[in-house]
Amino acid sequence: NQKLVLDQFQHVPTSIAFQSTAFPGVVYNKAKAPFIKSLQDLANPALKGKLTLPAPGDITAGGFFLGLASELGKDYANPDQMKEVVDWAMTNIGPNVTKYTSDQATIQQLLESGAINAFAFWNATARLEFLNGNKDAALLLPKTIYPANGYLWIPKNAPHPVLAQIFINWRIDPSV
Fold it and tell me: What is this structure's pTM?
């Protein structure tokens, strides 16, 4: 199935991407919001009107809530506990949110213009901010990361390399 993957995503002989590694994090201005050390810090009143969160229903919002559940000691597989997480976020973080959006260009423009001091979105936006010269941009990762997609590789001396290869072939198969 390797031939199904674009050449730029093949790192032969070490790995093949089936989509870039992604996970939600918080990109923030470390000069204006140095107090951000955890997702719960997004409830700090100093962020009132200076925060964006992903749009409800977006996969990024789901990842954000998974990380927050972990920080709050909740079980993401328990619907009642996840309701507690969402309720906590709406009560404590919600008042600080100026906009719920999953539009990357909008989020970055708001941060770069100083309209917001933090946003929750995919980790790649932190790299983009850095590459765009934003020296005050920092990335907060939740204590527990729930990645979406990523690279597949077989480590050297893996105990079951053939099984790993079978799994990789399955994962990048068009039917999957």
Answer: 0.74
% of the chain residues with pLDDT over 90: 61
Q: How far apart are CA 172 and CA 87, in angstroms?
A: 38
CA distance 90 to 83: 10
Instruction: State how far the Cα of 32 lies from the Cα of 137, in Å rounded to an integer.
Output: 10
Torsion angle in degrees (nearest 10) through CA of 61, 45, 76, 143: 90
76-106 per-position pLDDT tens digit: 999 999 999 999 999 999 999 999 999 999 9
Task: Strand 118-122: give its sheet, edge to edge.
Answer: 97-100, 51-53, 118-122, 24-29, 137-140
Cα separation, 71 vs 142, whole angstroms: 8
Q: 69: how many CB neighbours lie within 10 A of its CB?
A: 25
> CA-to-CA distance for 46 and 16, rounded, in angstroms?
43
Using 50, 70 and 90 to split pLDDT, how confident is the model at 151? low
Q: How far apart are the first and last CA of the chain?
A: 12
For residue 85, which of 97, 61, 100, 68 has the smallest C-alpha distance? 68
